[in-house]
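Marked as duplicate of an earlier ticket. Keeping the data here for the record.
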Amino acid sequence: MHISAKADYAARALVELARDSSSPLTCEAIASSQQIPFRFLKSVVGELRRAGLVRSQRGCEGGYWLTRPAAEITLLDVVRAVDGEVFTLRGEPLAGLAYPAPAAGLPGIWRSIEAGAAEILRRVTIAALLAGTPAPRTAEAGEDDPSGKDSLAGAA
């Protein structure tokens, strides 16, 4: 499994923007605070803007803001904004993947893994990351913790 640098940087930028929504932040400020290469971040923030997750304002008072509350932006939104798909196989979506027997069952496994990852990403918001309280695991994902109170913090 691979988490792209774009998805990682995009999530970190959004958490940084959510930290103080009273004024816009420049890419330079986000890059410095999060130790992200500026040029790479600039293109990632452009993708976030095109996806409608951030808005921008030019000028000396300019910068970037979240377009909606951090509690309404999920990691799934972030991944889809910058990567398109949660998982791909050799760059192709898993939806139409089919193999001849005896490997015919393998595409279903890949799609199940993708669906599970998408569900976890859907439950974690930028606000939860900022607060340090990601969503609890599902019973299946948290089998090591019978109480079901385990958090995703250890899974990252």
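See parent ticket for discussion. Helices lie at 5-19, 27-34, 38-50, 75-83, 106-123, 126-131.
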